[in-house]
Amino acid sequence: MKRYLLLICIVLLLLTLYGATYLQTIRLEKLKETFAAQISVLQSKNEDLKVKLLDKSSPLEIDKLARTKYEMKEPDSFYIIEIDADGK
């Protein structure tokens, strides 16, 4: 009788461990799918930001932004200073 009780306890323990492992596996699979979806969304946002960066880094766009937003203008006159390699 004690042998059967021990055998039943072992079987129940194994079934419990299997069930817990199965549930953890399902949870991890759902988490993996969620992360894959987040990765695809972030990759598309990254591509959009790269395109915006290329647009904002063009010299014409920088000039337009400087004139409109920061009200910068061309100087009336400017000087070009040339310095020899000797520093004289």
Tell me the overall shape: rod-shaped
Number of helices: 2
Cα-atom Rg, whole angstroms? 34 Å
SSE class: mainly alpha
State the domain count: 1
Compute the average pLDDT: 89
Order of helices and strands: HH
Q: Compute the number of strand runs.
A: 0
Poorly predicted ranges (pLDDT <50, ≥5 residues)? Answer: none
Helix content: over 70%
In terms of DSSP E residues, the strand content is: under 5%
**N- to C-terminal separation?**
107 Å
What does the largest sheet look like? none
Task: Pick out its properties.
88 residues
Account of the protein in words:
74% of the residues lie in helices and 0% in strands. The chain has 88 residues and is mainly alpha-helical. It is rod-shaped, with a radius of gyration of 34 Å.
What does the secondary structure layout of this molecule look like, with pairings?
Layout lengths: L1 H55 L2 H10 L20
At a glance:
By secondary structure, this protein is mainly alpha-helical. The chain has helices at residues 2-56, 59-68.
